[in-house]
Amino acid sequence: MSLIIIKNILRENNLTITKADKNKAIVIINKAMLQQKVQTFIKENKITTLLKDPTDQFHKQIHHATQKCQSIVERK
Fold first, then answer.
1. Which own/partner pairs from 58-62 qualify as long-range (CB within 8 Å, at least 24 positions apart)?
2. Cα 7 to Cα 9: distance, rounded to the nearest angstrom
3. What are the structural domain ranges in the chain?
4. Phi and psi at residue 15, in whole multiples of 5°?
5. Is the pLDDT score of 64 beyond 60?
6. For residue 54, what are the contacts with CB-CB under 8 A and spacing of at least 6?
7. Using one digit for the tens of pLDDT, what is the confidence trace for 7-16?
8. 3-class state of residue 16 by DSSP
9. What DSSP state is assigned to residue 26?
10. What sections of the chain are H helices per DSSP?
11. φ/ψ of residue 17, rounded to 5
12. Whole-number pLDDT of residue 3
């Protein structure tokens, strides 16, 4: 079966391919069911949306800490 045929079958049936929860397998699942599973996971784990990406702040804190501790980072 060619990749084009597989893609068409997935699209026509509103299916997607994704990684399984607990192992290295993949699963084919209805997109609406996957969306519901994601929403349930978010709700059950009390996950909230961040207003701002904290990556820059963490990067600055790590950089500052490594600058203070000369025994960890060799200066060039």
1. none
2. 5
3. 3-50
4. -110, 160
5. yes
6. none
7. 999 999 999 9
8. strand
9. E
10. 3-12, 31-44, 55-68
11. -110, 130
12. 92
> What's the mean pLDDT in 8-31?
93
CA–CA separation, 76 and 36 (whole Å): 52
Going by the DSSP 8-state scheme, the letter that residue 23 receives in this structure is: S
Cα-based angle 22, 26, 24 (whole degrees, multiple of 5)? 45
- Model confidence band, residue 70 (pLDDT cutoffs 50, 70, 90): low
CA torsion sign for 17, 20, 26, 27 is negative
Does the structure show a pLDDT above 70 at 38?
A: yes
Residue type, 10: L
pLDDT at position 73 over 60: no
How many residues in the chain?
Answer: 76
Cβ proximity of 17 and 28 under 8 Å: yes
Residue 20 carries which side chain, given as an amino acid letter?
A
